[in-house]
Amino acid sequence: MAPPRYKRVLLKLSGEVLAGGEGFGISPPVIGDVAEQIREITQLGVQVGIVIGGGNIFRGLAAAHLGMDRVNADSMGMLATVINALALQDCLEKLGVPTRVMSAVHVMQVAEPYIRRRAIRHLEKGRVIILAAGTGNPFFTTDTAASLRAVEIGAEVILKATKVDGVYTADPEEDASAVFLKEISFKEVLTRGLRVMDATAISLCMENNIPIVVFKMNDDGNLRRVLLGEDVGTLVGGELR
Asked: Average pLDDT by consecutive 10-residue portion of the chain (241 residues)?
């Protein structure tokens, strides 16, 4: 078997991925499958950091648009990511994968505080780290948190797990003429306004030369296939294949 393409990765999981077809909450079969896919790549010797969203439970920006104070709404969204992190930790540890939840918001009874050097040490010890609560600040998305944490922990790539199989010229669920893009540069993403990650996250990856692979998580084995260098998803930035 070929060695994995990357040694240390940052997996960005949206809350919506965990909801499965329900659209809300946490689907036990789906989160179980996600945990199994993560276990598989740890068996390849890959060090795994995860940034998880909370949109399956609460979306701060949506609540702010309905009149809620934005800071309060974003704080609630950050706490939703902690719930998802704890659920994923439970699934991983039942599979025998040592895991630590580290939160940018202090919830000491259920998670460690995020400390960069401690996070790197966990990775070196073979533990999966789940990085919850975004950056710990309102007005920043979990996409930006993923880019920031990837830079901080020295990840070689961001693996962005989605409900679609990569990047398209438009939303394929709304536009039947949308064209799949196998490769695209950071600058093209920004100039064409493609919804890969928000502009802050893309700019941070571009400045630090961290490529992004966008792929469909719920297809069996896709995460492992990405790590083994198979032709899965869309490569954003970095060296083109």
From this structure: 90 90 86 95 97 88 80 93 97 98 96 98 98 95 96 98 89 86 94 90 96 87 92 82 45
Write out the two tokens for 160: 């962005």
Q: Comparing C-alpha atoms, which of 8, 37, 4, 22 is closest to residue 161?
A: 37
178 in Cβ contact with 168 (< 8 Å): yes
Distance CA 135, CA 139 (A): 10
Every domain of the chain and the residues it spans? 8-236
Q: For the whole prediction, is pTM greater than 0.70?
A: yes
Residue 191 CB contacts under 8 Å (≥ 6 apart), including other chains: none
Residue 184 DSSP label = E
Q: Which long-range contacts (CB under 8 A, 24 or more apart) does 231-235 make?
A: 233/165, 233/166, 234/166, 234/167, 234/180, 234/181, 234/182, 234/183, 234/184, 235/182, 235/183, 235/184, 235/211
Give the fold, CATH level 3, of 8-236: Carbamate kinase (3.40.1160)
